[in-house]
């Protein structure tokens, strides 16, 4: 049986689950947990890499190698197709965008989204964003499409224009990106449900809804988003936020109480961890190897 590429697997998932739920996985362990929960695709957030791996804000500080490190770790252990946030492409020219695309494919990613903010970017749900010209964004998409070494690798265009220039400008940019070869569209910081329908009708390709907590977009349900023809629903940092809060609570309790006894019931058990990372499969192989060596 021929194994399909990661990009082809992502496209297949989008067709088979409408809309496709794509959940953020901050690391390889979370990728396995997402698969265990039944998700068909996962996501690596640029803001998640910055905050989670580097302890830095999402302000364009992280670079391509920072993201590739986490991509490789995830794709090494989890076969779910991975959508990756590549910010503005990690560089100021088409050559940088091309290098990013080729590297993502090489490291096992299935798809990327690239945005139209300036290099000194910020979280899409923060104020005072600055965007490049429509032509510069189109050039980014063309560079990404031309650089593909796998024709099924997905190039998704994200536009932050809604908050900066309004709906019509955002629609215009989205349509221009599709004409340039973008496979899917990610309109960021949507504030009204019917806006998704407007984008879907205009671009005629799958539209992603970013349902991130504590942002500009209400926490619409899958059914609500399906009703306006959304193709993918993204939950970029939900588990990460929960993980951080849980960690803070445990640290506080240990420091306050001098013991972890009062928070043990909030923890994943040793056996649960072993099950999630298939620990016993590795240990059995070690046991077999040791047995062979003793038999010599």
Automatic annotation (TrEMBL):
Homotetramer; dimer of dimers. It comes from Paucimonas lemoignei (Pseudomonas lemoignei). Pathway: Organic acid metabolism; propanoate degradation. It catalyses: (2S,3R)-3-hydroxybutane-1,2,3-tricarboxylate = pyruvate + succinate. CDD domains: ICL_PEPM. This is 2-methylisocitrate lyase. It holds the Pfam family PEP_mutase. Substrate binds at residues 45-47, 123-124, 158, 188, 210-212, 241, 270. PROSITE patterns: ISOCITRATE_LYASE. The keyword Lyase applies.
